Amino acid sequence: MTPLSSALWRFLRSLRWGLLFAPLPIFVCMAVFAARDNSIPDWKQQGVIFLDESPNARQHPVPVQAVHVGEGFWSPRRRAVTDKSLPSLLLLLEEHGVVDNFRRLAGRPELPRRGPLYTDSDLYKWVEAAAWALASNETPDAERAQLKGDIDSLIGHIVGAQEPSGYLNTYYVGDKVHLRFTELTRSHEDYCLGHLLQAGIAYYRATGNRKLLDTGIRFADYVVENFGPTKRPFVTGHPELEMAMVELYRTTRQPKYLDFARYLLSGVERERLKLKDSDVHYMFSGKPFTSRTEFEGHAVRALYAASGATDYFTETGDPAYKKTLDLLWTDLTMRKMYITGGVGSRAGGEAFGDPYELPSEQAYAETCAAIANVMWNYRLLALTGDARYADLLERALYNGVNSGISLSGNLYCYRNPLASAGDKLRNPWYDTTCCPPNIQRVFESLPAYFYSASRDGVYVNLYHSSELDWHLDDGTPYKLTQTTNYPWTGDVRITIAPVHPANFTIYVRWPAWASSFDVQVNGQAFLVAPSHKGSFMPITRTWTAGDIVTISLPMQAQMMAANPRLTDDFGRVAVQRGPLIYALEQIDQNGTALSDVFLKGSSSFTVEFRKDFLGGVATLKVAGLVTDRSVGEEPLYQPYAAGASRAKHMVNLTFVPYYTIGNREATPMEVWLPVSRSEQVVTTANSLGTEKHSENR
Ligand code: FUB
Ligand code: ZN
Q: Are 545 and 581 part of one and the same domain?
């Protein structure tokens, strides 16, 4: 629908009961409803998720195409994905037979089927990422042409592999045909279909081309026609299809896809499928979503399920879902998440741990799980307009997701630990290569996350130099331009230019980490009560072209402590500046062993901007302490008092942003550093002229 017809529809919807007794308006009203039900929304209006017609959505995400990204924090990261990551990963997908798996079914039977049973999803995710690159205003023409050619050729292979029934999976073919949809707890047929749909939707939203979308629809229809409460039973062994089915509903307005999402989330097939307790625990699927009270099992599966359930709630408003989503969010943020926004404490089962089980060195924190955290919080943010979800999205994005790809753009973390003895963290390829194309699709679609429209105006979700070229709910076009060097500095300047003066609200975010939030409108201090950190501040007025909002955020580094129940981090601190978590890498500490370093409880940090270091970062310098004798030489257990007289001397420490770790040689790394327990420092000069301290720790 065009913005105008969409506004007309909403106007009539608001009047529909009052119009009951007026035949002509009723007739008009019905005609508009009928037109709406059958009309396919305009692809140019659609973002990563499309919520313009979702009854419970507070925010309406904007399309990727509506945002021009200026130079800033994310521009080199996104450029690395477009220039290096996408082409190199496609070569690797070719090399490992992932594309041949499709060619094999499209007329090349001599080719072997290679790789684990979920490889189709990796190619679909690559296509989705490349599609968002086409939608991105920053993708250079030559690369755009190359990507378009690559996508079209891949779509040719994908379409060629589809069976007339609509079934499409490169693993369950030949002698495995009889196993189709019979081993759903492991088969990933559901997961691959979900990614096929998301890729098809992305390509459609980027170009208007329906070819891959229609391929996905044929397979989705096959599933919807053959499975359900009165047909064959279905369960998502790896949740993903829930999100995809709701997005397909939003794209086509066909209720059967929303109904199927409801069926998947209802978890009613436990008996028919003879699912074990361990299955429903691990898959986070197979029992009613609304019966969940905490996160458990496989982290990516659980967070994808929560994302799909949020999508479902956004369309239906079923209150049982919101209650469950709130419980789960509290469980995640109070007990089960790393400070980086990473998720998943255990390598065994790639799983959530018990409450407060968040080991640093053993952390699994798969990149896909941090991405799922972003996806979930993006949906919750859109649903509610509540800034706490933007805060969490930002935390996971800048840290736990961002660490997942090297500065060079062609090496990837699968695990993102918070401490390391010097392990190699990144590789170009994993046999289970789910994370690399996942991170690509997030970075390529990132501009759409910066802003969201709403009925009453626009939300500035994330701070970054950029220009939003969009329209108000009544169709009035405007441009919003943001200039900032965030998160290195905390000043943001927003200029607004509607085509004519218009009354609406600009929501600007006071991040939870910021102790103050100074806002000016056209040079005048702006205050609105109540305002508090971790909220959006609404600025409502008649905006005229050239109006300026300036924001100032304090960017002091601060030491963060974990809940004492998180025993792994007890007595330790992490360093955060703005949304960025910092880490110490041994390579920067002039020979000091990281395992002998302590921080003082009242440290003050100096910021140093280094343009040519790690792609351009702000490092943090602080005076810390190092033991005179390595703690490795101390006994395993000793009287408490012995630790109190441990001799230490001062050392200058340099912190780097966590996302940059592991980009040089392999070196020990630590996010959580032990802190001295006492500020009673006895200082003596040692022979080297450095200060020597004896203190409690
Ligand atoms: O199972 C498919 C993907 O592989 C999951 O999302 C990841 O966690 C990894 O297990
Ligand atoms: Zn992954």
A: no
